[in-house]
Structure formats: C-alpha cells, structure tokens
Amino acid sequence: MKKKLYILLLTGILALGTADISMADYMIGSKGSEVKSLQKRLNVYGFKVKTDGNYNKATSNAVKKFQKRKHLDADGIVGPVTYKALMGKVMPEGKKAGKKGKLGNTNSRMGINDALVKWHKAGKLSDKVRAIMTEAQKYVGVPYQFGGTTPRGFDCSGFIQYVFNRKGIFLPRAADEQYFSGKKVSVNSLEPGDLVFFQTYDQGISHSGLYLGDGYFISATSSRGVAVATMKNGYWHDRYIGANRVL
C-alpha cells in the first residue's frame, strides 16, 4: 500500500512538475519602475492599464491579451519571451542567487548551491505526513486568488494554512510568519511534509510551499493555481530561501 501511494505521488509529480513557471520575473504582486515600463508598453499596444508600477490583476489580464495576440502562452506572466516581444529587448537579469535577502534577523541567502545539494526520494512516511500530502494534492488545479484561504481560491500561504488546519495543525496566515514556525532544516535534510520558502517579487519571504520529496513541492502559484513544481532548477531553484519542519 505504501509503495503504491509513493508511485501515485511520483506519477503526479512527473506529470505536473515541469509545467509551472520557470524563469518569470514579473507577475501579480510585482512592483517597481520596471513594471511601470511594462504597463506603458501595454498601453502603446492598445491594452489600457494604469501605469502605477503595480502588477495587479488588470495588468495580468492585459499581458494575457498581448500574449494571445503574439501567439504566446497566455499565462499573464512576463517572462523572457513575453518581455522581448513586449519591450523589444532582452529581459534584464533579476536578483542573483547568493544575494542577501531581507529576512528580519536571519542570515539566509537566496538560491540553491548545486555543488552541495543532494536530493533524495521520499522514504517511509508517517501517517501524519502522508495525510498532509494526500490532503494537499486534492487541490491541484484550484485557481490562485490573492488573499484566498478556501478551495474556491488560494494564495500560497492560505493554501498551506488550510491544508495543515484540515489535519489539526494550526499555522500562521502569512508566508513570512510561517517561515518562523517549527524547526529550521537544511536543503539536504528536507523530508516530505516540510515547508519550503522562496523570495519572489520582493526582498524577504513571499512564497511558501509543501515539500514532497526528491526536489519537488506543491504550492498555490499565481500562474497555474495549486500545482507541483521543482526546486532542482529554474525559477524556484534560484529563489529558494529556506525550509522548516512543523510535523
């Protein structure tokens, strides 16, 4: 039975893990002068949005319309391909792995050192961990909703809080608060059921997820809703901040 559960979990990971965002730097929640420049270009193309430097739902919808016009994947996120099509130049490099994050009194750095990390598959799962992982995977495909805390729509920390609460484990609401719950664990010590954290649109903790094993985790993303993604490379690999164990 345990072997069957693991096979089903791995199948779900392989089916969903590579479909998530990999390089996108501008999405709902992003702010700043570069977002304002994107908004100005959207207006030039006839997609009317407020040029306030706030990447909100209206901006995301305008990006989707632009992407459809250009026959691109219409996910509402400005990654390298969309950026070049919209701005007419190569997307500037974002924050590099290794840059200090603004994380209160922590000394965490962003990104995973491939020379040191050793990924390992899930071993024997406790009943509590198995229950949490099974519960989390029930909601794959639930849409993203900023501030969402129910199966009608989740944001990242709302999803984590809801899943754990369903199993009688009460966590704080915000991702940065969840980061300071439980016991810190290194990337090489990660086990299924651990919480993993990332820096996305701003310095500090801004995304949380549930680790599944072998470098994969599940979370509520602004691009695809609740989905499985990898930390082995790409977007989440470069923005990883740390992990903790609450089980």
Keywords, separated by commas or semicolons:
disordered N terminus; endopeptidase fold (from Nostoc punctiforme); 247 residues; 6-stranded antiparallel beta sheet; Muramoyl-pentapeptide Carboxypeptidase, domain 1; alpha+beta
Describe the model:
There is one protein chain. This protein has 247 residues and is of the alpha+beta class. The chain has two domains: 33-87, PGBD-like superfamily/PGBD (Muramoyl-pentapeptide Carboxypeptidase, domain 1, Orthogonal Bundle); 97-245, endopeptidase fold (from Nostoc punctiforme) (Alpha-Beta Complex), CATH 3.90.1720.10. The protein is built from eight helices and eight strands; from the N terminus they run αααααββααβββββαβ. It has helices at 2-16, 33-44, 57-69, 80-87, 127-137, 156-166, 175-179, 234-239; strands at residues 149-150, 153-154, 183-185, 195-198, 207-213, 216-221, 225-230, 240-245. The strands form two sheets. The chain has a six-stranded antiparallel beta sheet with strand order 3-8-4-5-6-7. It is globular and about 55 Å long. The two termini are 22 Å apart. Residues 1-24 and 94-108 have low confidence and may be disordered.
